[in-house]
From TrEMBL:
Protein name from the UniProt record: Glycosyltransferase
Domain Glycosyltransferase 2-like: 5-139
Domain of life per record: Bacteria
PANTHER family, sorted: GLYCOSYLTRANSFERASE, SLR2126 PROTEIN
Statement: the UniProt record of this protein carries the keyword Transferase: yes
Keyword presence, DNA repair: no
Transmembrane segment boundaries: none
InterPro entries: Glyco_trans_2-like, Glycosyltransf_2, Nucleotide-diphossugar_trans
Stored Pfam families: Glycos_transf_2 (PF00535)
Species annotation: Stappia albiluteola
Keywords for the protein's UniProt record, in alphabetical order: Transferase
GO molecular function, one term: transferase activity
């Protein structure tokens, strides 16, 4: 019987981790599929050990891995090394999965003969009014409008399933240099795409991401857009046949974005918060592309945030 190893990396989010693991253990699996849950604890103190021990003691298929070296890449690599399944899925410790999440990813991988499958990550806001605008439209980009089986060039590890044998041949697939800045998932999956691996979208494989008030501000939202653009651009430049030419190719489009949307954002700011947010997202995307090489310590000292 095929086995799916589900890896959750966590640090200092015990309640979120508990909710995430509960949603994975509640998966409605097909009869021909088994599941194991791997909790990778990236806190120095091993804060998630009691949670994993409690579940394992109750007979749940949960294993614990302590990766004390801070960094999301280090934590994900530890999860890959511990996984025993033919398939490996990642989910984050601030997310919960729909009951058919694993089944739908697995089914799509088989039906479309794909190597990597990814699906929607839908926001759950603690207090939506704190944003001052409706953020929902900005979570539905081109990929979220795709039908299942649509081809992608990269995927995010908040919701993804890999075929182990096709995707993980090296000892440390996630680049440790990106352990503090993030973008390690885009880097890996884009690299696999360049190597000929097939990445598909699975529209009905849904997880929900919790956004607390301190994260769900317009400033934080715009920063995330810039970081995402940096990650995507960095991956494409690093793995291009001609990195310099690829990097320079982003410049004219990014400058045009700035020339168009920066004035529109400035004009909209005093009158229409929604339009300002939409224009500002384009501005941050352009800035991310232009500063892709400027990698900050996005995860601070906490490790796999």
């Amino acid at each position: 019987m095929p086995l799916v190893s589900v890896v959750m990396c966590t640090v200092d989010r015990l309640q979120g981790a508990r909710d995430c693991v509960a949603s994975v253990l509640a998966q409605a699996l097909p009869d021909d599929l088994a599941l194991e849950m791997i909790v990778v604890d990236n806190s120095r103190q091993g804060l998630a050990r009691p949670l994993a021990a409690e579940l394992a003691g109750a007979g749940k298929p949960v294993r614990y891995v302590h990766e004390a070296e801070p960094g999301i890449s280090q934590a994900r690599n530890a999860g890959v090394a511990a996984a025993g399944g033919e398939f490996l899925a990642f989910i984050d410790d601030d997310e919960t999965a729909e009951p058919d999440w694993i089944a739908n990813l697995y089914k799509a991988l088989l039906e479309h003969e794909a190597d990597i499958a990814t699906g929607p990550v839908l926001p759950v806001f603690e207090d939506r009014a704190a944003l001052g605008f409706d953020p929902t439209p900005f979570f539905f980009g081109s990929r979220e409008k795709m039908a299942t089986g649509g081809r992608l060039r990269a995927a995010r590890t908040g919701n993804v399933m890999f075929r182990m044998a096709r995707c993980f041949s090296g000892a440390e697939p996630f680049d440790q240099r990106l352990g503090r800045s993030g973008g390690e998932d885009t880097d890996l999956t884009y690299r696999l795409h360049r190597q000929g691996r097939k990445i598909i979208w699975v529209a009905d494989a849904v997880v929900h991401e919790f956004w607390p008030n301190d994260k769900a501000s317009l400033a934080a939202f715009l920063k995330r857009k810039r970081v995402t653009a940096q990650n995507t651009t960095l991956a494409r430049v690093r793995h291009a046949a001609h990195p310099l030419a690829t990097a320079l190719g982003f410049v004219p489009k990014s400058l045009l974005q700035l020339a168009i949307f920066a004035p529109l954002a400035a004009l909209a700011y005093p009158f229409d918060r929604q339009r300002f947010a939409a224009h500002a997202l384009h501005v941050m995307s352009a800035l991310g592309k232009l500063t892709f090489w400027q990698r900050a310590s996005y995860y601070g000292d906490k490790g796999a945030a």
